[in-house]
Amino acid sequence: MISLEVKNVCFQYPSIKVLDDLVFSVEKNECVAILGTNGVGKSTLLKCLNRILKMQSGDVFVDGDTIRNMDGNTLAQRIGYVAQNSQFSETTVFDAILLGRKPYIKWDIVESDLELVQKLMERLSLSPYAMRLVTELSGGETQKVAIARALAQQPDILLFDEPTSNLDLKNQLEVISLIKQIVLEHEISAVVTMHDLNLALRFADKFIMMKD
């Protein structure tokens, strides 16, 4: 079953075309690695998939629904995005993860929101840090908070931009293994940009190579 479908996507900055008639699909329960050298357009592609950047032409579908017609909250409910070197303000781990529930909150936080955050902290071994400021955590722990915040959106698709950059080898393997486990447990899909082929071989079901 196709979860994410990218059809003829084109994008260019004023001085250079980056994506030219790009076509690919991602199946449910599938991890896809997007590989290529720095500056080739991997991050640009993810931002087009998440509508952070507006593609010039083409379309992106989540379970058959175009992202063009989705309002902001609906898009956030369908696609979770973990940016490269995610930035956090002076907030606790608990509150940072709770922010992922924003697309669902109509009037105020409800008990089910708090319970979900608690479960995610337990799942990612973040419970001991619940009241710690995110800015006080290590790189690996901060990346887990970013993943938990995206999971709190309960999306169909997770997009990760270089999730292992600036991590030591132990934390790289832990984060990659965690992404794979999450995809299978939650029956969703993940698209992950990276430049380390050996690391990608450990978890990816499909590879997309980008050049020029």
How would you sum up this structure, described in words?
The mean pLDDT is 90. It contains seven helices and nine strands; from the N terminus they run E-E-E-H-E-E-H-E-H-H-H-E-H-E-H-E. It is α/β, with parallel strands linked by helices and 212 residues long. Helix 5 runs parallel beside helix 6. Strand 7, helix 6 and strand 8 form a beta-alpha-beta unit. The longest helix has 18 residues. It has a five-stranded parallel sheet with strand order 6-7-8-3-9, sandwiched between helices. A four-stranded antiparallel sheet has the order 2-1-4-5, covered by helices on one side. Helix content is 33%, strand content 26%. It is globular, with a radius of gyration of 17 Å.
Helix amount: 25-40%
**Number of H/I helices:** 7
Strand order in the sheet with the most strands: 6-7-8-3-9
Number of DSSP E strands: 9
Overall pLDDT confidence: 90
**How much strand content do the residues show?**
25-35%
Please specify the SSE layout and strand pairing.
Elements: E1 2-13, E2 16-27, E3 31-35, H1 42-49, E4 57-62, E5 65-66, H2 72-78, E6 79-82, H3 93-98, H4 111-123, H5 139-151, E7 157-161, H6 169-186, E8 189-194, H7 197-201, E9 206-209
Parallel strand pairs: 3-8, 3-9, 6-7, 7-8
Antiparallel strand pairs: 1-2, 1-4, 4-5
Helix pairs in contact: 5-6
Short description:
Helices cover 33% and strands 26% of the residues.
Any key phrases for this structure?
212 residues, 4-stranded antiparallel beta sheet, alpha/beta, 7 helices, 5-stranded parallel beta sheet
